[in-house]
Design goal:
Helix content is about 30%, strand content about 30%. By secondary structure, the protein is of the alpha+beta class. The protein is globular. Bound molecules: nickel (II) ion. The site of nickel (II) ion (NI) has 5 residues, from helix 2.
């Protein structure tokens, strides 16, 4: 089921999300819905707060060409980050059509629970590294525009407020 994606500004996008204590069938269904919503958007990552659920769950697939590689990460934690940084032009499904360059560690080691509750660990690099850090930020109420200067951030926020007013009128 495709779920509506919250648009910034929204208080639910600013919350620190709760860890998942047990991976229930409801949470597995939520993860499946999030993947469907992400592919439909289309996007390469989605965090639970973006669909209004303030739990520590993200989904990702950064494969552009080739067979899909969906990843479901409950309680993801960065346990190591490289000193090397890389810059990517980031966007966000909660901030449509706005892009900006963000500098982040080029490689990160991440530990999480998969949908069966098994602990997984993997080193991410390239686009995957940027994406996983962007999504984990969402779980701490942080958006990519928080890395920008205040003027740029306010400009984007005002555009989003306008977009939300227009969408509300269109319904
Ligand atoms: Ni995002």
């Amino acid at each position: 089921m495709i779920r509506p994606i919250l648009i910034h500004p929204d208080p639910r996008l600013k919350k620190v999300c709760e860890p998942v204590a047990e991976i229930t069938p409801e949470l597995r269904a939520l993860a499946a819905d999030m993947l469907e919503t992400m592919y439909d958007a289309p996007g390469i990552g989605l965090a639970a707060p973006q669909v209004g659920v303030t739990k520590r769950l993200i989904v990702m697939d950064c494969i552009k060409d080739g067979p899909p590689e969906p990843l479901i990460l409950f309680n993801p934690r960065i346990i190591w980050a490289s000193e090397d940084v890389s810059t990517f032009e980031e966007g966000c499904l909660s901030i449509p059509d706005q892009y900006a360059e963000v500098k982040r560690p080029a490689e990160v080691q991440v530990r999480w629970l998969d949908e069966t509750g098994t602990e997984q660990e993997r080193q991410f690099s390239g686009l995957w590294a940027t994406c996983v850090q962007h999504e984990i930020d969402h779980l701490d109420g942080k958006l990519f525009i928080d890395y920008l200067g205040p003027l740029k951030r306010q400009m984007i926020t005002r555009k989003m407020e306008k977009l939300k007013r227009e969408r509300a009128r269109a319904v």
